[in-house]
Specification:
With about 180 residues, the chain is mainly alpha-helical. It has one domain. The protein has helices at about 1-15, 25-35, 45-60, 70-85, 95-120, 125-165. It is globular.
Length: about 180
């Protein structure tokens, strides 16, 4: 149940329905947690919800045309879910934080590459690619901070809720975290 709630939180923040600092979102944490604690057969749910939210944002909020960079983002969602699935059997704090950091770094590298490769903002040469990465640097720190904070909170939440007597071990894999 928590895995679904965290995904709903991530989608709400992604759609900017909940106020948040720029690039400070629970997307990585929600994907990692769902992969590690959510039902495997339902791994398509967070992917689909985030992909649909991307389409809504691009079409109705930003009025962007559909371009190849969105497919890079979708591949990244799948990769972070896969990282989470690999945490299923061993979700020790260092591995979880490493996965969150990998999510931050890979998103920075892939999203800026996608903007460069499929957009018209930067020239399609080495200098343009580097300019794209430099332009993304101010967004990297809040992204890392948000990813580490939300991932930590999400992976600690089941234990805290269990200790508080709010969340039990009645068949929910998330409670055993």
């Amino acid at each position: 149940m928590l895995a679904y709630l965290f995904v709903i939180l991530a989608v709400a923040v992604h759609l900017t329905l909940l106020p948040h600092p720029w690039s400070f979102t629970p997307v990585v944490g929600a994907l990692l947690f769902f992969g590690a604690r959510g039902p495997r057969r339902q791994a398509w749910v967070p992917f689909a919800l985030l992909a649909v939210s991307d389409l809504i944002l691009n079409k109705f909020v930003y009025s962007y045309p559909l371009s190849g960079d969105i497919f890079i983002t979708w591949a990244w969602y799948a990769a972070v879910l896969w990282l989470g699935i690999n945490l299923r059997e061993n979700s020790k704090p260092l591995r979880v934080l490493g996965a969150a950091l990998a999510g931050s770094v890979s998103f920075f590298l892939l999203s800026n590459f996608g903007v460069w490769a499929f957009g018209t903002m930067y020239p399609h040469n080495w200098s343009g690619l580097m300019t794209s990465y430099i332009a993304g640097v101010p967004f990297f720190r809040p992204s890392v901070e948000g990813d580490l904070l939300f991932t930590s909170a999400m992976f600690v939440a089941p234990g805290v809720l269990y200790v508080l007597g709010i969340y039990g071990k009645h068949g929910d894999h998330a409670a055993s975290a």
